[in-house]
Each structure stands twice: as C-alpha cells, then as structure tokens.
Amino acid sequence: MLRLKQTGNLKHHKAACYSTLVPSDEVTVSYRYGLPVVTLMLPSRKERCQFTIKPMLTRVGTFLQDIQKEDKGIERAEVFTTDGSKIPTTALMEILLMNDFKLVINNTTYSVQVPVKEKWSREHATEAEDIKSLVHRLFIALHLEDHQLRRERELLQKLDHLREQLVPLEQMKAKIATSADAKTNRLLWTGLALLSTQGGALAWLTWWVYSWDIMEPVTYFITYGSALAFYAYFVLTKQDYVYPDVKDRQFLHYFYRKSRSQHFDVEQYNKLKEALAEVEESLRRLHQPLHLQLPIQEINDKD
C-alpha cells in the first residue's frame, strides 16, 4: 500500500514524500505539467520525496536547503558537475537542469541524469521572452515607487545621522583651522621681517662700516646658503620651494599638531565626510528622471 504525505508549500517548490519499494540508490528528474520534478530518497526517514521545481525562480542553494528541511539528518548537501566542479549555490536551477549533474547527500553521491526536454520553436521561445519581459516591467511598475520611497527615507535618515555626528567635529575643525592659519600668517610675516632686516644689515655694513670689497664674499655665501637650503627642502619634501605650497604645508603641520593636542580625530572626520558625500550622491541619483520614471525634458541647443 502506498502512503502519501503532503508536506506543504515551500517558497519555490512543493514536496511530496511517500514510502515505496523503489530502489533508493538513484535520484531521478522528470517533467510534470512542464515543471521538473526531482525524486530522491531521504536517508533518515527512508521515504522518497518529490520536489517540484520552478527553474526560473529557484536557486541551487534554496533547493539544497529545502532538502535539508525535509530531513534533519542531512548534514551535507552539495551539487557538482559530472567532471567534479562544484556548482555555486547562487546558480539557478534552470542552469543546473541543462546537463547531467551529481548530487552529494552526506557521504553518498548520486549521478543524476536530466531527461531531454522537448525544445521549443523559435516562435515559442520569443513569446516566452516577451512574457518574461512583460512580467519584469509589471513588477517594476508596481513596486518601484514603494522601493524608491523606502530607499529615500533610509538615505535621509542616514544623512541626518551623519550631519549630527559632523556638527561638533566641524566646530572643532573650524577653531583648529583658524588657529593654524593665524600661526602660518605670523610665520610668513616673520620671514618678511627677517629678510628686510638682512637686507638693511647688509646695506649698512656695505656703505657705512666696511666696503663692497669686503662684503661681496659675504653676500655670495649668503646666496649660496639660500640655494643650498632650497635644495635641501626639495630633497626632504620632494617638492619645489613654491611659496603657496610651502604655506599650505606649514598650515597642515600646525593643523595636525593642534588636532593631536585637542584630540580631534582627523581620520574619523574624513570618513564621515566621505560617507556624507556618498549619501548625497545617492540621493541625487535617486531623484534623477530615469530613476523616477519621469519624462526627460528635451534640451534645445542654442545657436
């Protein structure tokens, strides 16, 4: 007598398990009402179970999980090609059922032969592709607006959270930047004062104390020392001695030194700014006409 038990509808398949005298050392694939049916023996329950697959919706990983749900004694379930290559769990069952494969349950390997399905004509294949495309467009039309609103809400919440985190950091950064800029400007004015003092001292020594014959070698070595200092700057920094770049470098030096004394985390600040820019860019792209399914305004070139 045949004992048939319906286990209920799962996400992508319907399983029917029953006791039978059919040999348990095989896994078969057949087609019923156009859908593939995988029949196999559950090792712990000693019952054969049929899984009706929806090839275009079911993934290999989902199919293996459903097998393990039917028999809690299955600890390992994997699928391989006939040459031993493992099939990823993200692959669709439609791809798997194109060729023969091997099903491994615990320590037992089953060679599964997939029957040749009647091939569709080109007209039927084209009609099926049109139906798929229509279903896809209907799904987008029905769910796109909700998805966009939910996505926009998530981005706005993240944007507010990032801005709240940045407010105290921005205030501290502004104070540190003001202090560093003031020190940099004082250094520049100090340099101007020293150069002016040097020029006045050389003029005084040349015309009032000594003569040009004595001061000429002194000015030569001062010029040579300046050139040597500029070259040393290039060797140490790998940059030319350009006044705007020197100012920016000195500003960063004062800024980072002040940041350490004030316990200002520059790296964390930069990460938050990058995250804020990414969220704003995502919002901008979300509001584009193509994402909102709105007509794009035509732009006429002006002559």
TrEMBL record:
GO biological process: calcium import into the mitochondrion; mitochondrial calcium ion homeostasis
Single annotated GO MF: uniporter activity
Bilayer disposition of the protein: Multi-pass membrane protein
Cited function: Mitochondrial inner membrane calcium uniporter that mediates calcium uptake into mitochondria. Mitochondrial calcium homeostasis plays key roles in cellular physiology and regulates cell bioenergetics, cytoplasmic calcium signals and activation of cell death pathways.
UniProt comment concerning the protein's domains: The selectivity filter, in which calcium ions are arranged in single file, is composed of two acidic rings separated by one helical turn along the central axis of the channel pore.
UniProt superkingdom: Eukaryota
Keyword ATP-binding in annotation: no
Gene Ontology CC terms: uniplex complex
Domain Calcium uniporter protein C-terminal: 70-272
Assigned protein family: Belongs to the MCU (TC 1.A.77) family.
Name the UniProt record assigns to this protein: Calcium uniporter protein
UniProt keyword list: Calcium, Calcium channel, Calcium transport, Ion channel, Ion transport, Membrane, Mitochondrion, Mitochondrion inner membrane, Transmembrane, Transmembrane helix, Transport
Annotated InterPro entries: MCU_C, MCU_fam
Location of this chain's protein in the cell: Membrane; Mitochondrion inner membrane
Positions of transmembrane segments: 187-206, 218-236
Keyword Membrane: yes
